[in-house]
């Protein structure tokens, strides 16, 4: 429907009716509202393919938003529909998703820095397999996963809608995968240090100590 630049639109956060701790990014353009469907990092081709499929083949009203180093696809929604719109974030607060993203990105950077690009690429493929198997949002392709690995977790408008069960799966499988690549758990300290960038790091740490998969990181 539309291919727009950041200066063409206004993006605001509204409260998720199903999770009072979470804000949902809403794009506004010419009196219409759109909800984030997928983030693609700098992969314009994949974003364009999804946008065309939704608009041309499925008749959806969508926006392709072009920003420096980032492309995203948004689907039209009425604000009063958000209360009944399906969402994955039924229990996880925004800060928990942000914390898990910081851990995920720190582990990936550690593998890339210490083991090299080839191993980092292999790790990313393994990561994608279990995320697709567990039906994570924004794991439809390697390009979508690249977007997750490159977003700023501290920007709540960018983070994926993952619920608490997904976060526990992520922590468990990420720990297992990283342990197999490093042959030990030396990656844990650097991953937890990344939480220091998050204002709610204390809450995330307390949650990690409470849930079974989080205890792997203690």
Describe the structure.
It contains 8 helices and 6 strands; from the N terminus they run E-E-E-E-H-E-E-H-H-H-H-H-H-H. The chain has helices spanning 44-57, 94-115, 117-133, 142-150, 164-182, 187-193, 201-210, 212-215; strands at 2-5, 10-16, 19-29, 32-39, 62-67, 70-76. A 6-stranded mixed β-sheet has the order 1-5-6-4-3-2. The model is unreliable at 83-91 (pLDDT under 50). Strand 2 and strand 3 (19-29) form a beta hairpin. It folds into 2 domains: 2-81; 94-215, no CATH class. The chain has 218 residues and is of the alpha+beta class. The longest helix is centred in the middle third of the chain and has 22 residues, at 94-115. Helix 2 (94-115) packs across helix 6.
Supply database-style keywords.
218 residues, alpha+beta, 2 domains, six-stranded mixed beta sheet, 8 helices, 6 strands, 47% helix, globular
Number of helices, counting only DSSP H or I runs of 4 residues or more: 8
Low-confidence stretches: 83-91
- What is the count of distinct domains? 2
Structural class: alpha+beta
Number of strands: 6
Helix content: 40-55%
Order of helices and strands: EEEEHEEHHHHHHH
> What is the straight-line distance between the termini?
48 Å
Q: What oligomeric assembly is this protein in?
A: single chain
Strand line-up across the major sheet: 1-5-6-4-3-2
Mean pLDDT: 83
Rounded Rg: 18 Å
The shape is globular
β-sheet strand percentage: 15-25%
Largest sheet: 6 strands, mixed
Give a brief description.
With about 220 residues, this protein is α+β, with helices and mostly antiparallel strands. The protein contains eight helices and six strands. Strands 1-5-6-4-3-2 form a six-stranded mixed β-sheet.
């Amino acid at each position: 429907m539309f291919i727009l630049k950041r200066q063409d639109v206004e993006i605001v956060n509204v409260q998720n009716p199903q999770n009072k701790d979470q804000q949902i990014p809403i794009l506004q353009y010419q009196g219409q509202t759109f909800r984030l469907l997928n983030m693609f990092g700098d992969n314009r081709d994949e974003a364009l393919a999804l946008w065309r499929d939704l608009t041309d083949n499925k008749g959806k009203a969508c926006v392709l938003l072009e920003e420096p180093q980032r492309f995203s696809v948004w689907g039209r929604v009425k604000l009063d529909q958000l209360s009944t719109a399906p969402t994955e974030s039924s229990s996880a607060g925004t800060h928990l998703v942000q914390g898990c993203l910081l851990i995920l990105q720190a582990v990936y950077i550690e593998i890339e820095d210490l083991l090299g690009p080839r191993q980092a690429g292999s790790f990313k493929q393994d990561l994608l397999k279990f995320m697709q198997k567990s039906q994570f949002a924004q794991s439809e392709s390697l390009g979508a996963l690249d977007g997750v690995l490159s977003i700023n977790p501290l920007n709540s408008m960018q983070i994926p809608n993952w619920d608490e069960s997904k976060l526990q799966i992520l922590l468990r499988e990420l720990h297992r995968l990283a342990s197999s690549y490093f042959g030990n758990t030396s990656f844990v300290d650097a991953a937890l240090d990344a939480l220091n960038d998050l204002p709610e790091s204390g809450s995330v740490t307390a949650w990690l100590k409470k849930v079974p998969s989080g205890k792997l990181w203690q």
